[in-house]
Amino acid sequence: xxxxxxxxxxxxxxxxxxxxxxxxxxxxxxxCDAVELTKSYGTPLIVYDxxxxxRTIRAFHEVFQRERVEYQISYASKAFCTMxxxxxxxxxxCGIDVVSGGELYTALASGVPAHAIHMHGNNKTPDELEYxxxxxxxxxxxDNFYELSLLQDIAAAxxxxxxxxxxxxxxxxxxxxxxxxxxxxxxKFGFDLxxxxxxxxxxxxxxxxxxxxxxxxSHIGSQIFDAEGFVVAVERLADLYHFxxxxxxxxxxxxxxxxxxxxxxxxxxxxPVSETISAIVATAKEVFGRKEIPLPTLWIEPGRSxxxxxxxxxxxxxxxxxxxxxxxxxxxxxxxxxxxxLALYGAKYHAVYANRAxxxxxxxxxxxxxxxxxxxxxxxxxxxxxxxxxxILAVFATGAYNYSxxxxxxxxxxxxxxxxxxxxxxxxxxxxxxxxxxRRDMPLRGK
Length: 447
Fold this sequence. Notes:
CATH topology of the largest domain: TIM Barrel
Shape: globular
CATH class of the largest domain: Alpha Beta
Oligomer: single chain
CATH architecture of the largest domain: Alpha-Beta Barrel
Distance between the termini: 47 Å
Number of helices: 12
């Protein structure tokens, strides 16, 4: 990788959109020339600034350590789950939050010890629960009465005692997209608090011989910028915690407030994570102190806020189309197969050309994917210089829920993933090939 002096660092008011530009006007990620990365690894290519991943995790640790409380950070692996990512977050002192057998398998295969893993999910299968119990993972978060009974049977059959938490829907309406709000009453997740479901779940757990309920969990949504939702959730959960710990004498020691800390994609005002964590800790100290209950170990589950800002996706620019008086279209060699978030959530992004990253925008260009689907768009009306042959489009803040949600629509292979740090790049996910796409296909009647 050619070494070039960095002469300018452009950083917006929000940390998700850092642009590190060298003397050739090229974008750099993790000290690596983004254009050279595409020559080495092809496009589409997802590049993570590895040092930024580590720095973000350390910032979470620093807040808790400054507050002098017992805590655990568990990376929500659904944001981006690969062996390399699991290894990295564990190296940085995090546990792993998984929601499927596949994520559990990935975490274990990466070398993360079972005790550092806990499992979520609103419909864990018997096989997944068997797997989790067999591996003796750190905790299972019970989501409903069906699962409570099923897990008790599995644990009893294996002669195991399993640490569990219950997921509580506290009825908090966080400021978030309706499709990613998970903490209200009308949700597929968790035991409802206001109707008494959560209290009844704790009563059943107090009688369960093989399930040891060690605390409560809630997750009020995603892309949350206001700490108030977390504050209200902690206040509501404290009453239930008192009921379980004092009245039912359950061995409570954990209050897990989930994740959902927002990041900046375009013009969102993302507050420093320290403000939100400090508000959560202050509320917990005050409420539990008032109830004269020892402060539980506080768990959080950041995913997007760790992975999202550190990721940049690089695409080769292809065809262009001007519709006079309507819109300009710019096509790339990826699309909804590696980033379905606009189609799912109406997500918005910021982009530049990696090969002329400081060029002045000249027009509005809507970035379209290559799939046979009119909804296959990445950005609507992005301010960009007019495209030229050889341009590499860089889309920022694509580290979370992009590769994780990637599909094979139109039989398009999944992209490669690279970690970049101190000017050196490491391939952590190989690019799929067309042969990979048919590897598990079976010909008709064995022909």
